[in-house]
Design goal:
The protein is α+β, with helices and mostly antiparallel strands. It is about 25% helix and about 20% strand.
């Protein structure tokens, strides 16, 4: 086999180049599909709920061992991570009067037309483009490079989105209810869970003391 050494902040270890596209399965360097594809869906969920700059307060396994996790925000809003049905890159929102589905380049409500300011006509066609490339999202990023304005999903939004993905993984790993403080970004009274927030880093890649 053609072996090389993976260069990253954790300890050096053998790496097979033939398996390089399976990097998501290397737990020492990744959080699996949850922190890859999951981040895109979580970004949309947090934005739709008005939670882009915060996070949940509680997380727990729905069915131990199934990978299904529920979480609740401070205002009582609930989110369930399940893959039984629904969009792979978005979410289904269930309200008292309607359901709304969001996905990469797709937006729909049941009953149809329930959201009054939903995109329509040329705007809808622009969003619902072919494939997975979110054209308007990239346009906003490029526009902000020129204008120096804050983009729709700035670095803090990205941080909060991926934080939720890591929280879900930690909940799966510990397989129990966790209480999270989105202000301090620490688990409350839980040393075992807080130990999962960082991994050992090899010399030269240590984080600075702030």
């Amino acid at each position: 086999d053609d072996w090389d050494m993976w260069c990253g902040p954790t300890e050096m270890r053998p790496f097979n180049r033939k398996l390089q596209f399976g990097w998501m399965q290397w737990w020492a360097y990744s959080g699996g599909a949850m922190t890859n594809w999951g981040a895109h869906g979580v970004d949309q969920i947090q934005s739709a709920l008005g939670m882009s700059h915060t996070g949940p307060r509680e997380l727990w396994p729905i069915e131990p061992g199934s990978g299904k996790v529920a979480m609740k925000y401070a205002n009582g809003l609930m989110v369930r991570f399940e893959l039984d049905k629904g969009p792979n890159g978005g979410a289904i929102f269930t309200g008292s009067k309607a359901k709304m589905e969001i996905n990469r380049n797709r937006f729909a409500t049941n009953p149809e037309g329930f959201v009054l300011d939903a995109p329509s006509g040329e705007q809808q066609a622009k969003w619902e483009g072919p494939g997975w490339t979110a054209g308007p999202h990239l346009d906003n990023w490029l526009d902000c490079i020129r204008s120096r304005k804050e983009p729709n999903a700035d670095v803090e939004v990205g941080h909060r989105s991926i934080s939720v993905c890591h929280l879900v993984n930690i909940t799966r790993e510990l397989n129990r209810r966790l209480v999270w403080n989105p202000e301090t970004e620490q688990f409350e009274g839980d040393e075992e869970a807080n130990a999962k927030l960082i991994r050992p880093r090899r010399k030269g890649y240590e984080l600075p003391d702030v």
